[in-house]
Amino acid sequence: MDEPPREYEELDIGEIEFQEPSRFKVYISEIGSQAEVMAIKDAVHDGNMVIADITRLGTSDAMMKRVTGELQEVVREVGGDIIQKGDDQIIVTPRGVAINRDKLRR
């Protein structure tokens, strides 16, 4: 019997010893309800970055507009950055973290 595919795969990075606990975190989230939007806003206010899957929002333009408006507001409050990546992700950052809109090139 085949196992269902996992959304995220844990990659082994070996025995890395961190010098001090990281104060900055990158959270992975899904947005499908107001509670999830609030959790993202709280994380960004706390100085963390969030990569949010927005596919559960569906095709409602009104819902998408409301959610992006709320996230844009928190970005203005903290001096962060926000970008929508394709039709399925929004990336929200805190103060001091800018999102470069250009793809990395060699």
Summed up:
With 106 residues, the chain is of the alpha+beta class.
CATH class of the domain at 26-93: Alpha Beta
Between the first and last Cα atoms, what is the distance in angstroms?
A: 42 Å
Count of alpha/pi helices: 2
CATH topology of the domain at 26-93: Translation Initiation Factor IF3
User: Which word captures the global form?
Assistant: globular
Mean pLDDT: 86
Q: State the major sheet.
A: 4 strands, mixed
List the topology elements:
Blueprint: E1 26-30, H1 34-45, E2 49-53, H2 61-78, E3 81-85, E4 89-93
Parallel strand pairs: 1-2
Antiparallel strand pairs: 2-4, 3-4
Would you mind describing this structure in some detail?
With 106 residues, the chain is an alpha+beta fold. The chain has a domain at 26-93: SepF-like protein (Translation Initiation Factor IF3), CATH 3.30.110.150. It has helices spanning 34-45, 61-78, and strands spanning 26-30, 49-53, 81-85, 89-93. Strand 1 (26-30), helix 1 (34-45) and strand 2 form a beta-alpha-beta unit. The chain starts with 25 loop residues before the first strand and ends in a 13-residue tail after the last strand. The mean pLDDT is 86.
